[in-house]
Write a structure and sequence with these properties.
The complex is a heterodimer of chains A (340) and B (122). Chain A has 340 residues and is mainly alpha-helical. Chain A has helices spanning 3-13, 18-79, 82-156, 161-258, 261-284, 291-300, 305-311, 322-332; one strand at residues 337-339. Helices cover 88% and strands 1% of the residues of chain A. Chain B contains five helices and five strands, in the order E-H-E-H-E-H-E-H-E-H.
């Protein structure tokens, strides 16, 4: 307590009754207490306000940065739609592998046609064998005719010697024809055997080719099925992530809306703090205090509805969470747009 | 091309919530901590709308708008006052200074965006 203040109080106390003295002593002590305690209250409020401001602004900034990162990630993801590219790649792969299967089918069909041609050739070889037998038969008949001609020539005697020469030549030719017929039969039999072998091998390969084609189709279908499932799962996952990202972003925006309370609370605490300093100054200077005027001046500093409500005894109480309170307050202010 | 909105408020929390709302709606955002800081950042670039608090250190929102209207490049830039103040007297001061709208905090982003879309320069 400063000297001038003590002297003022002391001068006022002279000539008072005991009761009046006690009452004024209490007031003097209260005044002294105010002088000591008011700056402490103000500083405590200031410290609490600054600490809260710092913490809320830090929190707000972190949420803000988080929201920007989500925005950037979602933006990059939507700019480069990997799932869409995968779906296109899947369709292209299906088309290309379908072409490969189709090519294999054509190859197998060509092989079938080749085997049918070989089997047809086998029938032709039978016809060739028949022709060779005919040649041999003709040769034998010719030989018999030549033998008979030689016998008749011998009966005629010297006059048939020329005819005997012709008969001998014919016999020789029929012998050659018979040998040729035998050779043709052997070759045809040999070719026929080879064709049967080829036919047998071809049929074996045809079965293998058909099985290979079925296997190839199954493998391609299986791989494409798995690829399709994986692509669909990735696409679903990407969409889910985008949905969740948007949801988180909305939640963060809600949280930031809720953190607006810091601005109002800071202003309210500043007004209280300023008023405490004002009271301290007035008590220190022993100036007159007009309660009504003081309260009016205090009310004039208010900026929020809550301050006015509290000032006029309408306690601003709530059991709701700050988020709900802030949202409600914001909704109540929805009509508070004034266009000039 | 995105339009540019300036937010002037000493509260980082408010600047952030306004920033998120505006960027989410496709606007470019520049911010300032008070009127004096805002004037130092307005160097002739195109700003399509300004949102300003009223109670700020160094230079309050009313003084800021008065000063802004003296700058030819920003004479016609619409200003929305975004403040906890809701008294008619303060609103009148804002209107006299040149503000085009008055929004009371706390606010819902759609509410502010509605005012922005109505007033922003083409």
């Amino acid at each position: 307590m400063n000297n001038s203040h003590s002297e003022t109080y002391q001068n006022g106390l002279d000539g008072l009754s005991v009761n009046e003295f006690d009452e004024n002593d209490t007031l003097r002590k209260a005044g002294d207490l105010c002088i000591d305690v008011l700056p402490i209250w103000a500083k405590q409020i200031s410290s609490a306000r600054e600490t809260t401001n710092e913490a809320i602004e830090n929190l707000s900034q972190r949420f803000y940065d988080l929201s920007k990162r989500i925005e950037a990630t979602a933006g990059a993801s939507s700019e480069h739609d990997y799932s869409k590219e995968l779906m296109i790649l899947l369709k292209e792969s299906q088309t290309q592998l379908g072409s490969v299967i189709s090519l294999l089918q054509h190859t197998v069909e060509d092989k079938k046609a080749f085997v049918e041609a070989v089997v047809d050739l086998s029938h032709k070889s039978k016809e060739l064998n028949g022709l060779a037998n005919t040649v041999k038969s003709i040769a034998r008949e010719t030989n018999m005719v030549a033998i008979n001609a030689a016998i008749e020539a011998a009966h005629i005697g010297p006059l048939g010697s020329g005819f005997a020469v012709v008969a001998t030549a014919v016999r020789r030719l029929s012998g050659d024809a018979e040998r040729t017929g035998n050779n043709i039969s052997e070759v045809v039999n040999s070719v026929s055997q080879a064709i049967k072998k080829v036919e047998s091998i071809s049929q074996e390969y045809e079965e293998k080719d058909s099985q290979m084609l079925i296997n190839a189709e199954q493998v391609v279908d299986g791989v494409m099925g798995k690829f399709s499932e994986a692509t669909q799962a990735m696409t679903d996952s990407a969409h889910e992530m985008q949905t969740q990202g948007q949801h988180i972003k909305n939640e963060i925006a809600d949280v930031l809306v809720s953190l607006q309370f810091q601005d109002r609370v800071s202003q309210m605490l500043t007004h209280v703090q300023d008023d405490i300093y004002k009271l301290h100054d007035r008590v220190t200077s022993s100036g007159e205090i007009d309660n009504h005027q003081w309260l009016d001046e205090l009310a004039a500093t208010y900026t929020t509805q809550e301050q006015h409500q509290i000032h006029h005894g309408k306690a601003y109480k709530t059991n709701k969470s700050p988020k709900v309170v802030e949202r409600k307050a914001a909704e109540n202010n929805s009509d508070e747009i004034t266009f000039f | 091309m995105a339009k540019t909105v300036m937010i002037v408020d000493d509260s980082l929390s408010v600047r952030n919530v306004v920033g998120i709302a505006l960027k989410g709606a496709g606007y470019d955002v520049i911010d300032a901590e008070d009127g004096k800081n805002a004037l130092s950042k307005l160097t002739g670039q195109k700003v399509h709308l300004i949102i300003s608090d009223v109670n700020m250190p160094n230079m309050n929102g009313i003084e800021f708008v008065k000063n802004l209207k003296q700058i030819p490049a920003y004479r016609f830039t619409p200003v929305i006052m975004l403040t906890t103040e809701s008294s008619e007297d303060k609103k009148s001061q804002g209107q006299m200074a040149g503000a085009k709208a008055w929004v009371v905090k706390p606010f819902q982003p759609p509410q502010l965006l509605n005012a922005v879309s109505k007033l922003i320069l083409p």
